[in-house]
């Protein structure tokens, strides 16, 4: 479902979609390598690259179930159909001086953004989820202190929304609403709409 943008953007941005429905079709290892290669090349503060990922594919049944169990129940309902699940984790301190890295979560998000656009270019879809169980993930995967599980990712090919429970199917079929530029692009002072977006 291509986005109806108010202004021209690159095709990949308009085509990006976060489905709840995933097809029962495996993702090739070469595609997965390219997704994480794209994440690798995201910019980051001091080139820290604070992102880490834990990945499980459906064919790794036990590993997949472990990662699925780190999602909240509502997300497990639909994410269990995705051929690939991942956890995005941020290192919260700089490695060169161990000072807090205020950009760590931002930089993980940017790496995810690169991953998502690479997926879109390959005909894949990614649904990111803040609905995870960080403490459970930390325990299961022995994630060390100073690293924070932040987000889940379901990766695969878009499926048929009608296979979902009714409420999720409705969500999957909705047009993606977006705030207009005037709601978030300011100049001069907070809330003053920038003159180029009026």
Q: Describe the global form.
A: globular
Number of helices: 7
Sheet/helix structural class: alpha+beta
* Total count of strands: 4
Query: What is the CATH level 1 assignment?
Result: Alpha Beta
Mean pLDDT: 95
Name the CATH superfamily assignment. Answer: NADH Oxidase
What proportion of the residues form beta strands (DSSP E)?
Answer: 15-25%
CATH architecture verdict: 3-Layer(aba) Sandwich
Poorly predicted runs are none
The gyration radius over C-alpha positions equals: 18 Å
Write the CATH fold name. Answer: NADH Oxidase
Descriptive terms for the model:
198 residues, 7 helices, globular, alpha+beta, 4-stranded antiparallel β-sheet, NADH Oxidase
Summarize the structure.
With 198 residues, the protein is of the alpha+beta class. The chain is 33% helix and 15% strand. The mean pLDDT is 95.
Overview of this structure, please?
The protein has 198 residues and is α+β, with helices and mostly antiparallel strands. The protein has one domain: NADH Oxidase, CATH 3.40.109.10. It contains 7 helices and 4 strands. It has helices spanning 11-15, 29-40, 61-68, 73-79, 104-121, 134-141, 166-173, and strands at 51-57, 84-91, 125-129, 147-156. Strands 1-2-4-3 form a 4-stranded antiparallel beta sheet, sandwiched between helices.
């Amino acid at each position: 479902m291509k986005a109806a943008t108010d202004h021209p953007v690159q095709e990949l941005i308009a085509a990006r979609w976060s489905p709840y429905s995933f097809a029962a079709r495996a993702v090739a290892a070469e595609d997965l390598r390219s997704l994480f290669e794209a994440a690798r090349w995201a910019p980051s503060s001091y080139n820290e690259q604070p992102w880490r990922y834990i990945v499980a594919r459906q064919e790794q049944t036990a590993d997949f179930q472990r990662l699925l169990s780190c999602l909240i129940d509502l997300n497990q309902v639909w994410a269990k159909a995705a051929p690939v699940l991942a956890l995005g984790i941020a290192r919260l301190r700089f490695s060169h001086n161990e000072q807090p890295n205020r950009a760590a979560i931002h930089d993980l998000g940017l790496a995810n953004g690169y991953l998502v656009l690479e997926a879109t270019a390959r005909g894949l879809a990614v649904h990111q989820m803040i609905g995870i169980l960080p403490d459970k993930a930390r325990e299961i995967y022995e994630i060390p202190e100073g690293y924070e599980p932040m987000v889940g990712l379901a990766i695969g090919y878009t499926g048929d929304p009608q296979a979902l429970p009714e409420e999720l199917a409705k969500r999957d079929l909705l047009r993606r609403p977006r705030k207009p530029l005037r709601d978030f692009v300011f100049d001069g002072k907070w809330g003053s709409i920038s003159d180029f977006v009026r």
